[in-house]
């Protein structure tokens, strides 16, 4: 797993929150699991622009942080399902507020982000 060169100071609550939600798909994955999408293949179908590898890495990180628990069923082929822990469940209101804020400011944010993306080299 990636090791940061400069360690975060975890003295601030917002830094702790950003640390556990850091990752492009983590908030989306938590929302999927809360809506009953528990299997990695179903999550990938819901988020087709994310690679399976990235989703698996982010699910593993969320498991390590105690946001989700993983159940492996002893079947052939093995079946894996994820559930929110109480800690992960407690993040859902935060994710909902983030979604509301993004939707409320969508026009200006889309405009600013389109300009930012256009200025990227490549």
Textual characterization of the structure:
By secondary structure, the protein is mostly helical. The chain has one domain (13-118): Winged helix-like DNA-binding domain superfamily/Winged helix DNA-binding domain (Arc Repressor Mutant, subunit A). The protein has helices spanning 13-21, 26-34, 40-46, 52-64, 86-90, 92-104, 106-118; strands spanning 68-73, 79-84. A two-stranded antiparallel ribbon has the order 1-2. Strand 1 and strand 2 (79-84) form a beta hairpin. It is globular, with a radius of gyration of 16 Å. The model has no long low-confidence stretch (mean pLDDT 90). Pfam families: HxlR (PF01638). This is Helix-turn-helix transcriptional regulator. InterPro entries: HTH_HxlR (IPR002577), WH-like_DNA-bd_sf (IPR036388), WH_DNA-bd_sf (IPR036390). Keywords: DNA-binding, Transcription, Transcription regulation. Residues 12-110 form the HTH hxlR-type domain.
